[in-house]
C-alpha cells in the first residue's frame, strides 16, 4: 500500500500544489500524422497470419502488398499480429488471436486470422498501439480501449482480473488521454494534464510505480488477486511531489518507458537497462522514473526501442543508437561495441530521417525522400532485403512493390515488419511522421 499512500500524498499535499497541477494542460501532442493514406507492405514471418496475405503465404523476404478495401493512414506491428488504422478511424487487425490480440471473434471462421477485418469500437480512433499479445486504441474523445492480454515470467496475467479480454474493453476511465504507447506487455497513457499512467507487467520496472519487491504478481506485499489488480489497473507513475513534473510525450520500449518533461525536454526513463539502452550508467532495472542525462542531451522527435537497444530520432532528422550490438541492430558497423552512450549512425548522417522503428533485434529508418533502410537481425526476412542475413549497417530496402512508391512509416514486430507507402507520383510528405 506504500505506493498508493505516496500517490495520495502527492495529490493532496496542499491546495496550492493541486491548483498548479490542474492548471497545466496539453492542447496537443505529436501523434503520427494520419492525414496521408498509403498502401500496406509486409515482410518477414507470416506463419500465424501477421502478414495478412492469406493462409498460403507463411514468409516473405521482400515487401509484399496487402490488398485492402480501406485507405490506411497508420500501422502497428505487434509480436505476432498487425494493426492498421483507416482514414475513417476504423481499426483492422490480422494475425495470431490465441490471446485475443485481434479484438474480434475468429473461432469457427476459416482463415479469419490470416485476413484483415474490422474491430468494433464506439467512436473514431486516432491512434493505435500493439504489444506481444495486446492491442490498444485511442479514441477521438480521449477514451482508450484495449484487448488481448499481458504476460510476465509466470505466464498469462490477463488484461483484467477476469483474464484475457478478447473484445475491446475500456481500460482506463475518468481521465482524458491524448497519447498511448505499448511495450511488449505494458501500456503507457499520457493525459490531457501531462500525467503519465501505466499498467501491465512490472517485472523489469517498466511501470515506473512499483518497487522491485512489489513488481511481481506474487509479491509479499499483496499476494494473489490484490497484487495483480494493482498492476493491471492503470495508475500514475511515482514521482516526487516536489518536482512538479508534467510530461508532453511518451514512448514505450519492449521492457521500458521514456517520458519527456514538458518544460525542459528532459527525458525520464524506467525499466530494463541491462545494455544501457535507457542511457543510465547502472545496468540494473530501474523501477522508478529516473532522469536520463544521456537522453536529455538532445531534442527528440521520436524514441523507439527493442529488447536491448534504442534508436532515437532528433528534431534535425539525425538518428542515434544505444545498447546491445549483436546482430547489427545498432547500425554502427561490424566492429562496433555495445554502446553505453548515444552514437550517431553516420551512414545516415547525410539524409533527413522522418520515421524510425525497432523490432526485437531490428531497426529501421525512413528518409524524407521515401527510402526505407533496415538493419539488424534478418533471420525471418523481416528486414525486407530479400536475404536472411543480418545487416550491420543501414541497408536500402528494395523490391518490386517499392519501385514506384515512397515509404513514409514503418513498424516492426517480433519477426515481421509493416510498411506504409505512397505512390511516388503524388506522395505528400508534408505530414510530420514520428
From TrEMBL:
Disulfide bond found in the keyword field: no
PROSITE patterns (alphabetical): RCC1_1, RCC1_2, RCC1_3
Ranges for the RCC repeats: 38-88, 89-141, 142-193, 265-316, 317-369, 370-423
Keyword Repeat (UniProt): yes
InterPro entries noted in UniProt: Ran_GTPase-activating (IPR051553), RCC1-like_dom (IPR058923), RCC1/BLIP-II (IPR009091), Reg_chr_condens (IPR000408)
Span of domain RCC1-like: 40-419
Gene3D superfamilies associated with the record: Regulator of chromosome condensation 1/beta-lactamase-inhibitor protein II
Molecular function terms, GO-annotated: guanyl-nucleotide exchange factor activity
Any single Gene Ontology cellular-component annotation: cytoplasm
Keyword tags: Guanine-nucleotide releasing factor, Repeat
Alphabetized PANTHER family for the sequence: REGULATOR OF CHROMOSOME CONDENSATION (PTHR45982:SF1)
Name listed for the protein in its UniProt record: RCC1-like domain-containing protein
Protein's organism: Phaedon cochleariae
